[in-house]
Amino acid sequence: MSKNRARILFADDDAAALLVAQAALEEVGYEVTCAGDGDAAVRLFQEQKPDCLVLDIMMPNKNGFEVCQAVRALPDGKDVPVLMLTSLDDVDAVARAYDSGATDFATKGISSRLLVERVRFLLREHEFRRALVVSRSRLRMVQNIARVGHWEVDRKGRTVLMSGLVQSMLYQGRPTNSHFGHLATLVRSSDGRRLLNAFREWQESGAQFRLETRLRSGAHLYIQGTTTPGRKSKRGRTLTLAVQDITTLRQAQRAAHRLANFDTLTGLPNRQRFLDTVTGHIRTRGPSNHLVLLCFRLLGLERLQQSFGHSACESAFVSAAQLVLAAIGHEETDAFAHLGGGEFVLCRPRCNSPSAAVDIAEEVARAFEAPLSGDGWTAHFMVSTGIALWPADAQDAKTLLENARTTAASGMSASESSYRFFTPDVHQRARRSMLMESALHGALERGELTLVYQPRVRLEDCLIVGTEALMRWQHAELGAVPPDEFIPIAEESGLIGTLGAWALREACCQTAAWRRSTGRGLTVSVNVSAHQFRTPRKLLEDVQAALAASGLPGSALELELTESMLIEAAEDARAALQELRQLGVSFALDDFGTGYSSLGYLRQLHVDCLKIDRSFVSDLSNSDDAERVMMAILGISTALRLRTVAEGVESQAQLVLLRLHGCQEGQGYLFAKPLAPVAVEELLAKGLTLDPDESSVAA
Ligand code: G
Ligand code: G
Ligand code: MN
User: Fold this and answer.
1) Under 8 Å between Cβ of 41 and 11
2) pLDDT of 287
3) pLDDT tens per residue across span 60-117
C-alpha cells in the first residue's frame, strides 16, 4: 500500500452504483472502501481514516447528512473533504448538505469519469489548504519569535487588520480604539507629531522607521519596522506596517553597555570607562596643562575575607566607595572608578600641583581611620595611595593608570596608610617582581631552593643547641635572591604553601640526621610566614607530615612567628597552635621588639621563646641606652619565664653584655653565618662548642 495512494470511503446502499464507482476510482489508483449503510460508513471512517468521503443521502440507519455530522464531530473528521451526492434539482438537499458540513456536492448519477475528477479536485484542494495552514502557523511562530507583527490601516488611518502582537505592543493587549491617529496621542506630543507627519509620507512611498518613546502610560515603547503602501480597496489604498518589538534588544544593549562600563557592585564606572574619560581629558588638554591620577588600594581585606568571606568584602567595597567619594570632595570633571577588589582610581583634571594630590591622599587616609562595619563584622582598613601625573609620568591614559596602580601596590606592605608618587624605579621593581614570580614557579623542582642553617648557641658556654633554617634561592638569571624579596612574592602568588611545607620537611629530616650522627638533642627553628599561618589546618598537617617523615620528635622543632601574625590569628589558628603544642612543638616570637610589643598581648600569646631583633643587639656596645633597653627586654622575658635568643651577635663585647644581663642563647656572625649543611657537619665534627676567640670577631 503506497503512501501516496489516497483512500476513499464510498457510502451508498445501491450496490450496483457502488460497484461502478469503486471500479472507476480504483482504475485511477485510489484505494476504495465501500459502506452499504450510514452506521457502517461512520464505523469504517473511524477504522480507516480515509482521505475523502463520498456519501449518498438516502441510506439505512443514518442518512448522508447524519453521517456527515457524525464524522465532523470526530477528532479526525473536522477537515476531511466530504462529497455529498444529491438528486438533480434538489436545492434543499444541497443547502442541508452544506449545513451538515459537506465540502461539496455532486449530482447523483453523474458519470463515473466526472465523479473521479470531482474527488481528485477535492483531494488536491484539501492538500493546498493543509499546506497553507502549516505555512501560516510557521509564519506566526517566526513572527512571534522575532516579535514582528503587522498592522494594516486604510487611508484615513482606520485599522483594517492588526495582529495580536501589535495590539499587545501598543496597547498592552487591552482592546482599544486602534486608529493610527490614536497612537500619536499615546506618546509624547513631539513624537506624536512626527508620527502623523510620517504617516502622510508613508502613504506615498514605503519607509523604514524606528520609534523609541515613552507611552503616556509610563511604559517604554521600542519598535522598528517597514511601511508599505498596499493594495487598493473600496476605502482607497491601505498602508501596511511591519512592526518589530525591539524592547528586549534595547534592554540587552543597555545591559551590555552597563556591564561594559560600570562596576556592578558599586555602580561606579569601571576601568574601561575610566580610561575613556581620561583619554578624553588628555585629548582636550594642551601639554601645558596637567592631570593627576590617584589610585587608592584598600589594605586589610585579606583578614576580612578569611573571617567573614567574600560577601563581607563586597559590602566593604560599597562602604569604602562612599567614604572615598566623600573624602575626595567629588567634582564634576572628576573621573572616578572602582577597578574591583577595593581598588579605586581618581583622575582630576584641574588639580595641577603635587601638593593638592597629597591633600587628597591624606583626606582619604583620614576617612579610613575609623573602622568600617557591616553585617556582623567590624574591620579596620588602611589605604595605599599611588599618585601619577600627566604628562610627566606617562603619555597615555593606560600607562598613567598602570603607573599609579603599581605605585599603590608597592605600598601595600606598609603598616599604615601611606601615599607615594610614581618614580621610574617603581616600575623597575614591579617588573622584577613579576619576573621573579614566574621564575619562582618550578624553582623547587629545578633544585634552585636550598636551606642554610645558622647555629644557635647557649651563651654561657657557646655550645651549639640548634640551628635556624633559612631559605636560599639561586636563580640562573636573577642570581641569589634574598628571602626578604622572594618570600613576599611566594606569599602573594600562593606558592608559599608548597615552599613552606618543603622547608619544614627538609629542616626536620636534616636535623634528625644530625641528632643521629652527634647523639645530641639538637633543635631546629623554622620560619613560618603569615600566609601559612592563615591556613592553620594545612600548617598543622605539614608539621605532622614533616615529623612523621623525619622521625624528629616534636620537641626538637620550634616555629618562628611574628607578633602581628599572632595578634591577627583567628580562632582556628589558635586551635591549631594548641594541637601543635600537644605534639611538643614550641614557638618563638621572631624579630621581637619591632612589632606591637604590647606586654598585654605578650602574656596571652603563649610563646616559649623571644628572639630579640638584631637592631637591639647591634647598638649594645655603643650606647648605654641600648644596654638599658636590652636589660628591660630581658627583664620582661624573665618575668614571663620565656627563653631569650639574641639575634645578630657580631662582637665579643655584645656577647659579654648579653651574658651579663642573663640572655640565654644567641645567633650571629660571631658564632657562625648561616651555613650549608656540609659546613654545619664540619662544625659538628670539630666539636659542639663555638667559643669565639678575639680573632674571629668581625671588624
Ligand atoms: O637569612 P636571611 O637574610 O635570608 O633571612 C631573612 C628573612 O627571611 C628571615 O628573617 C625570615 O623571616 C625569612 N625567611 C628565611 N627563610 C624562610 C623560610 O623558610 N620561611 C619563611 N616563611 N621565611 C623565611
Ligand atoms: O628570621 P630572621 O629575621 O631572624 O632572620 C635572620 C636574618 O639575619 C637572616 O637574614 C640572617 O642571614 C641574618 N643574620 C644572621 N646573623 C647575623 C649577624 O650576625 N649580623 C647580621 N647583620 N645579620 C645576621
Ligand atoms: Mn627567624
Assistant:
1) yes
2) 62
3) 999 999 999 999 999 999 999 999 998 867 888 889 999 999 999 998 888 888 999 9
Strands 665-666 and 643-646, by their bridges, are parallel
What DSSP assignment string belongs to 562-593?
A: -HHHHHH--HHHHHHHHHHHHTT-EEEEEEET
**574 CA → ligand 3 middle, Å:** 21
Distance linking the first and last C-alpha atoms of the chain: 115
User: What tens digit of pLDDT does each residue of 412-464 get?
Assistant: 877 789 999 999 888 787 788 888 888 998 899 999 999 999 999 999 999 99
Dihedral angle over CA of 12, 14, 15, 20, nearest 10: -80
Locate 385 and state its grid cell: 595611595
Q: How far is the CA of 589 from the centre of ligand 3 (A)?
A: 9
Determine whether the shortest distance from the Cβ of 484 to ligand 1 is under 6 A: yes
Q: What share of the chain is helix, strand, coil (3-state, %, to 5)?
A: 50, 25, 30
- 471 within ligand 1 shell (Cβ under 6 A): yes
Number of Cβ within a 10 Å radius of residue 436? 20
How far CA 644 is from CA of 158, 207, 396, 507, 588, in Å, comes to 100, 92, 56, 22, 9
Residue 566, pLDDT above cutoff 80? no
Report whether 183 contacts 195 (CB < 8 A). yes
Which residues form ligand 2's pocket by a CB distance below 6 Å?
454, 470, 527, 590-591, 614, 647-650, 667-669, 674
Going from the Cα of 592 to the center of ligand 2, the distance in angstroms, rounded, reads 13
pTM of this prediction? 0.54
Ligand 2 atom nearest to 669, measured from its CA: 19
Q: Which atom of ligand 1 is nearest to the CA of 562?
A: 12
**Are the CB atoms for 593 and 563 separated by under 8 Å?**
no
Q: Model confidence at 40, in pLDDT bands (50, 70, 90)? A: very high
CA–CA dist 397, 278 (Å, integer): 6
Q: Is 483 in the pocket of ligand 1 (CB under 6 A)?
A: yes
Q: Whose CA is nearest to atom 20 of ligand 1?
A: 527
* Average pLDDT of the residues of the chain: 89
C-alpha cell at 503: 622547608
More confident residue, 123 or 214: 123
Q: Where are the alpha helices (DSSP H) in 103-236?
A: 112-146, 164-171, 180-186, 189-204
Please give the number of the atom of ligand 1 that sits closest to the Cα of 532. Answer: 22
